[in-house]
Amino acid sequence: MGNINDRRPIAARGSAWAQRLSAALAASAITPNQISVASIFFAAVGALMLLVAPTSFGLIVCAICVQLRLVCNLLDGMVAMDGGKQSATGALYNEFPDRIADSLLIVALGYAAGVPWLGWFGALLAALTAYVRLAGGSLGLVQDFRGPMAKQHRMAVLTAACVLAVIEYHTLGSGYVLPAASALIALGALLTCVTRTLAIARQLQARG
């Protein structure tokens, strides 16, 4: 799963439930790569709900799927690093499923919001945040996971948007939450690309 110094800082990693679940998975035949791929499955289900059933039920299912996707993202690294199940292809599986899951959900959000281009734009910018982070790592720097719209922030916005959109529909009958969330993710990801790039430039200049 890569260098331990390049792991995304996640507070839930130290929680009791995560420790117990990762230990159980480490003792099973399930591999970290399989857990990484499972995150795509949950993202695909959530995206499907946004595309074909953006009803109250579909939005709640999507919110749950987003959180399950994040649980997979948490556990794959824990099972690999802490459970001693690292593999030669772990670094690939740590990155590519994330990009696929991000794209599926963010593009689907754009369609559900009625602004497809904004979903595609947001997905592109989300991928670029990871590109900038990995570029820093390729230059010998510690990978920078800062926001303001890193993966966990994007998924938090999407989860909140799904729940708030349900409340909005049943109380106001309007549909502003999903477009606002799509725009927030895109603009926040753009700002994240800028902040990470500037941080890399500062570190390179300091290194001489």
TrEMBL record:
GO cellular component, one term: membrane
One Gene Ontology molecular-function label: phosphotransferase activity, for other substituted phosphate groups
Keyword set, alphabetical order: Membrane, Transmembrane, Transmembrane helix
Chain segments annotated as transmembrane: 21-51, 120-142, 154-172, 178-199
Signal peptide: none
Gene Ontology biological process: phospholipid biosynthetic process
InterPro entries linked: CDP-OH_PTrfase_TM_dom (IPR043130)
Classification via Gene3D superfamilies: 1.20.120.1760
Name of the protein in its database record: Phosphatidylglycerophosphate synthase
Organism listed in the record: Pseudoxanthomonas indica
